Amino acid sequence: MMKQEQILSIENLSISFRTTAGFVNAIRGVNLTLDKGGTVAIVGESGSGKSVTSKAVMGILDRNAVVNSGSIQFAYPKENGEREECDILSMTKRDLRRQINGKRIAMIFQDPMTSLDPTMTIGKQIMEGMMWHYHTPKDEAYKKALELLGEVGILDAEKRIRNYPHQLSGGMRQRVVIAIALACNPELLICDEPTTALDVTIQAKIIELISRIQRERGISVIYITHDLGVVAKVADYVNVMYAGKIVEKGTANDIYFEPAHPYTWGLLSAMPDLDTTDERLYTIPGSPPNLLHSVKGDAFAPRNQFALGIDSKEEPPMFRISDTHYASTWLLDPRAPKVEMPLELKQRIERMKQEVKNYGR
Ligand code: ADP
Ligand code: MG
Hints:
By secondary structure, the protein is of the alpha/beta class. It has two domains: 221 residues, 3-Layer(aba) Sandwich (Rossmann fold), CATH 3.40.50; 120 residues, P-loop containing nucleotide triphosphate hydrolases (Rossmann fold, 3-Layer(aba) Sandwich). The strands form two sheets. It has an eight-stranded mixed sheet, with helices on both faces. A four-stranded antiparallel sheet has the order 2-1-4-5, covered by helices on one side. It contains twelve helices and twelve strands. Bound molecules: adenosine-5'-diphosphate and magnesium ion.
């Protein structure tokens, strides 16, 4: 059962892919909730299962996907304002397309070119969803498209609305994708690495834009990123994902200031730091496990300099650190030796805390 304040609740989600080499166990028991109007981030290295999780929520899993277990509950207001709940995983493709996709849940992908049609003007692409989902008359949809272009910060909307995607810069294209996503008034916006393909200076502007729109419209947002730095200022909750599992979750303060999982320590250490002149960027040694094979014990153990004997034998449970903060590492077992995060990271966190004190988050 979902709580009243929640809009999304993923429970025990497990997904494999059928491949010629065997089954890839991409998602291995994911739990995640999102409050109405809230922002959660899913952070992890490439291949950890972030996109598969978000595609499952959108109901657009690849054809070779097999859902082994779990549910994805989504709540939305009906026409009369009453709350309706559905399980995305048990809906037909047809119902999803008509009731959920694009209308209630919209998605922004890493590369704007993959979601834009190069043969259609951007105006037409913004109008399409409104006309299909709500039967909005053409002239009204046109007016709304102009407004949306303004809302996402595109100047000269009257002229731009007749442009084709190739006539726009990368940053502007992503703004158009956001306008398309907003056209049908979705309750949930999923942003899958929305800025990874963009320039650093434009990255921050796009994140700011999404965050402003979220505040103004009161929508809920899932940010997916491999870079913890990108979402530091906007996420209420952060889920750290590794090898198809969420290995640590907490409020932004829990994750940035009191990280408990050695993998999160690694991700935080790997964050580009604008304040230090140090050019060497830390990378976590080794690489994630091949999910074609079953994982024994803690999937992160082979890369973990703090690994314990039990790590190679038994999978760690989610240990509770506080009401908001959980992590799956044997280091939190009461019997484990006391291990501290690397000193360099500790100092970095102190600097981040100081910055928040001085400038706010
Ligand atoms: P990321 O965290 O980078 O978004 P993904 O969610 O895209 O990672 O992928 C998670 C794992 O699932 C990866 O090992 C990837 O290779 C695998 N995977 C994703 N889609 C498919 C597919 N259609 N067939 C086989 N394996 C897949
Ligand atoms: Mg991805």
